[in-house]
Design goal:
CATH topology of one domain: Methylamine Dehydrogenase, Chain H
Protein name: PQQ-dependent catabolism-associated beta-propeller protein
CATH architecture of one domain: 7 Propeller
InterPro entries: Host-pathogen_enzymatic-act (IPR051200), N2O_reductase_N (IPR011045), PQQ_b_propeller (IPR022456), WD40/YVTN_repeat-like_dom_sf (IPR015943), YNCE-like_beta-prop (IPR048433), YVTN_b-propeller_repeat (IPR011964)
Oligomer: single chain
Helix content: under 10%
Keywords: Signal
Number of strands: 28
Order of helices and strands: HEEEEEEEEEEEEEEEEEEEEEEEEEEEE
């Protein structure tokens, strides 16, 4: 009996080990960067930062986002009026979605079933059903919508309007009939969002206002504002766009656009701790998994800066292509 049972136990253990190995090695370690004027997504090796390949996309690829299980990357292609879909393992475009005119930014519902897309030319937010492969509803928001962010519970979508200088709070509980339930006035030309893990505080970058607004999501009111004053730059050159929170929510990194710096903000004191000089027109931001490195795309110097978050020094600058926009890391 012992001899019979032993191989069964070993086989079972081996199977579990194999399953663990497969699941733990699922991430490719690649870095993906959208390159707006090259109509492409560049793939870099996550360890050497060498260019592995270039994936051609529809026109003007900008915002990138993983599907919830990280097997797909969605790419907003503004001039192509599409969201392209890249298979992370095949490293190729496997689908192209008709999501309406001039898709700027989108977010994905927590269950992975819907895309919420800002359509800049139409002044609308589109709800795209990823299973039915079609737009199921649209709701009018302010002129030139850009930033889109879904609340953690999936019931609310926040949308920035660059012209109205507002954040629109959209109820998407009923996907077939979304409705704007509140409009929040912020500073001039709001662009992007970051949301705390507890969902209580929403950060909004104001490009022309040169600031980040903080919104209390409980009452949908502005609770504060952080201004940026890097040395050597006029106020009109301080144009914050991309922003990302550390996983402990204690630090907010803000790309300051034409000011060519990243601001490092202490979210508890609401003060700027430091400014880090990067490339020309700092744009997109993302952190690696352990938050030890910050990746910043520089649109006008055609490169990407990698910042050590412990030392706040640029460790490397990598040529990417013509107008790099967004960056993702598969890890």
């Amino acid at each position: 009996m012992f001899l019979f049972k032993k191989p069964v136990v070993l086989a079972s253990s081996f199977s579990l080990l194999m399953l663990y190995a497969l699941s733990s090695s699922a991430a490719t370690g690649n870095i993906f960067v959208s390159v707006e004027n090259d109509n492409a997504v560049v793939v870099l090796d996550g360890k050497t930062y060498e260019k592995r390949m270039t994936i051609k996309t529809s026109e003007q690829p900008r915002h990138l986002q993983f599907s919830p299980n990280h097997d797909l990357i969605y790419v907003a292609c503004g001039d192509g009026n599409r969201v392209d879909v890249i298979d992370v393992n095949k490293l190729s475009v496997v689908n192209s979605l008709d999501v309406g005119e001039e898709p700027e930014i989108f977010d994905i519902s927590p269950d992975g079933k819907y895309l919420y897309v800002s359509n800049e030319d139409d002044g609308e937010l589109s709800v795209y059903d990823l299973n039915a492969h079609k737009i199921v509803s649209q709701v009018e928001v302010g002129e030139e919508p850009e930033g889109v962010l879904v609340s953690h519970d999936g019931n609310t979508v926040y949308v920035t309007s660059e012209v109205a200088n507002m954040v629109h709070v959209v109820d998407v509980t009923d996907k077939a009939s979304p409705s704007v339930k509140k409009n929040i006035v912020v500073n001039t030309r709001p662009r992007r969002f970051a949301l705390t893990t507890d969902g209580k505080t929403l950060f909004v970058s104001n490009e022309i206002g040169g600031s980040v607004s903080m919104i209390d999501t409980a009452d949908s009111k502005v609770s504060g504002e952080i201004k940026f004053t890097p040395k050597g730059f006029r106020p009109d050159e301080v144009t914050p766009v991309g922003l990302v929170l550390s996983k402990d929510n204690k630090t907010l990194y803000v790309a300051l656009g034409r000011a060519n710096h990243v601001a490092v903000v202490d979210t508890e004191t609401k003060t700027v701790k430091d400014y880090v000089l990067v490339g020309n027109r700092a744009w997109g931001t993302t952190l690696n998994k352990d938050n030890s490195l910050l990746f910043v795309t520089n649109g006008m110097s055609d490169d990407m800066s990698i910042i050590n978050t412990a030392t706040l020094k640029v460790e490397k600058s990598i040529p990417i292509g013509r107008v790099p926009h967004s960056v993702l890391i598969d890890e």
